Amino acid sequence: MKLLIDSFWRAALYCLYPKVIGLSLLPLVLIVAASGGLGWMYWDVAVSGVRDWLDASSWLQVVWRWFDGVGLDKLKSVVAPLVVIFSVTPLVVVATLLAVSFFMTPSLTRLVADRRFAQMQRKKGGSFWHGLWWTFVSVLLALGALLVTLPMWLVPPLAMVLPALIWGWLTYRIMAFDVLAEFASPDERRTLLARHRPSWLAMGVITGLMGAAPSLVWASGALFAAAFVILVPMAIWIYTLVFAFSSLWFAHFALAALQALRHEPLNASVDEVLNSAPVAPHSSARLGTKTDDVTDVHSHRDL
Prior knowledge:
The chain has helices at about 1-15, 20-25, 25-55, 60-70, 75-105, 105-115, 130-150, 155-185, 185-195, 195-210, 210-225, 230-260, 265-275, 280-300. By secondary structure, the chain is mainly alpha-helical. The longest helix is centred in the last third of the chain and has 35 residues, at about 230-260. It is elongated and about 75 Å long.
């Protein structure tokens, strides 16, 4: 817990560095450009398709009539854009996470290492292609979990818990690997991932919950169409800063944990190995023979 809190406030302070703020602009430009291009090409088609689906749904006709009865007839025109936005939001979050992972996490990890762990050996236990495959598999598993658990989101408690757990798991999988790829060996990385898994997951869930704030800004872009062009890039930038903070948090935590692992006493681990190793039968026999011989010698001397 001490390491978790210490790395948290250090990451928060590092977010104020001009270099960190400057690095966050590159993912922002890439995601805004991609979102704007796709929106310009497919926004009208997507909204029209969702509106037709809503109009054709028989069970929603009761809801529309109720809206008309209470004077909320204009609310129907807002539902279709909201559905599109909430459907696209997970993809934007994943794209932002990947952009931060590839363009910011290595630089932020080196920033933390140069300032706090300048003497740490870099064992380069994870290659670029290994990291790319790890990220690809993790994203597929997370998206699959989102699709499988989507019906459960209709239950209010699960709607709050499941997305946070899934995004938290994905965040810690990607961030922890990227931070340790340059500095830890494969064995060290596996040891740290297994030893600190509850802390990794807690960090991912907390940063996932922090990502709820830009989701509100993102969704409000459909309600305030005039400010849509401003609110959506603002939401993406907040996403970028949240994931940049998570990169710094994982960097401080992982490098401190790696340093502690390397400074663990070697003798303790050797003793644990010797104590856990089984004794061979022939070794026991030989040991018993030698003990008996020594006992006989002492007996003759006493005689």
